[in-house]
Amino acid sequence: MLAFIIVLIIIGAIFSALIWLSGFDLGTVYQALLKGSFGSRDALGQTFIRVAPLLLCSLGLVIAFRCGVWNIGSEGQLYIGALISTLIGIYIHLPAVLHVTLAAIASFVGSGLWAAVAGFLKTRFNANVIITTLLSNFIATWLLYYVLQFHLKPPGTFNVVSDWIQPTAQLPIVVSNTLLHAGVVLAIVLTFVVWFIMDRTYLGYSIKAVGVSNPAAAYGGIKVNQKIITSMFLSGGFAGIAGMGEVLGIHHLLRPSISPGYGFIAIAIALVSKMNPIGAIPVAIFLG
User: Fold this and answer.
1) Distance CA 48, CA 179 (A)
2) 133-145, pLDDT tens digit by residue?
3) Would you say the C-alpha torsion 240, 241, 246, 249 has a positive or negative sign?
4) Which residues of 147-174 are buried (b: 16+ CB within 10 A; e: fewer)?
5) How confident is the model at residue 28 (pLDDT cuts 50, 70, 90)?
6) pLDDT-above-90 percentage for the chain
7) Which of 4, 67, 73, 199 could form a disulfide with 136 if both were Cys (CB 3.0 to 4.6 A apart)?
């Protein structure tokens, strides 16, 4: 926690110096910043709908990083989740609760499997996870664009966007007159779920053991390769939930720019929070 506070102080000092060197009044800038982020119900909603995908992606990265697997593909995994949830939101017809639940599960599993490929390549061919996941970002981006352009874009539409998802697939708004949707609440709940898994279960213990030392973990009876693939699956799954939230909770359609780089910013959140799920919350708020 001390390191986290020190990092925030350093970032704040650098930010303040840049403002001062630009000739702006620090008090005025910080007042506007706080008012724009927390000064009204709408501002709070706008802030936390950005926090949710950052937090979800960082939770997934915490799991992978704790396992010693450097997943840099969270952005692409978010795109896969967004694509899957869009397909379900448009083409599947179900009652509201079942519709959203199916989209969430499918997005988690689909993005998890997408990420698990890099884990498999690591365990089977010792492929560098940083490289494979980084490349997978480009593949996911172009896959999303291809499906949008040639399969999901309504005929006669100039912009490359999908059709609207069905109302039953939309995440409910939890605070009236804001964009604060149920996905934000889910992100907070999942933060404590990840904390519990990583700090209170054998799965979390074994994942962390693999991250500390593969040979020692294997000597202790832990299936190292299985844990690497599992951690990548979970990591991708959380990014997929983030993508689902962007489609079902905010935009209600799919567009190429569905994420402004949440998956990459989440890397910084996971590292600054020292891979602590609870610590990721204030960092995500600060960067959101």
Assistant:
1) 9
2) 999 999 999 999 9
3) positive
4) bbeeebbeeeeeeebbebbbeebbbeee
5) confident
6) 77
7) 73
Q: Please tell me whether the overall predicted TM-score, pTM, comes out greater than 0.70 for this model.
A: yes
Residue length, the chain? 288
Give Cβ neighbours of residue 282 (< 8 Å, ≥ 6 apart).
4, 273
User: Could you tell me if 242 and 171 are in contact, meaning their C-beta atoms sit under 8 angstroms apart?
Assistant: no
Residue with tokens 């929070």: 273
Strand partners, 181: 173
Q: Which long-range contacts (CB under 8 A, 24 or more apart) does 103-107 make?
A: 103/169, 103/244, 103/248, 104/241, 104/244, 107/80, 107/81, 107/82, 107/240, 107/241, 107/243, 107/244
Residue pointed to by tokens 């001390």:
2
Q: What residue type is assigned to position 279 of the chain? A: G
Both tokens assigned to 240 = 């997929």
**Which residue, chain included where needed, has tokens 């059709």?**
163
Dist. CA 227–CA 117, nearest whole Å:
13
For the ranges 20-29, 34-43, 66-75, which has the lowest average pLDDT?
Answer: 34-43
- Record the tokens describing residue 160, joined without a space: 């490359």
Helix (H, G, I), strand (E, B) or coil at 258: coil
Check if the beta carbon of residue 279 is closer than 8 Å to that of residue 150: no
Per residue in 45-81, is it b (16+ CB within 10 Å) or e — as a string?
A: bbbbbbbbbbbbbbbbbbbbbbbbbbbbbbbbbbbbb
Q: What is the mean pLDDT of residues 228-238?
A: 99
Q: What average pLDDT is seen over the chain?
A: 93
* Per-residue DSSP letter, 283: H
Spell out the residues 6+ positions from residue 106 whose beta carbon is closer than 8 angstroms to its own: 84, 85, 88
Amino acid present at 56: L
The answer for residues whose C-beta is within 8 angstroms of residue 218's C-beta and 6 or more apart is 224
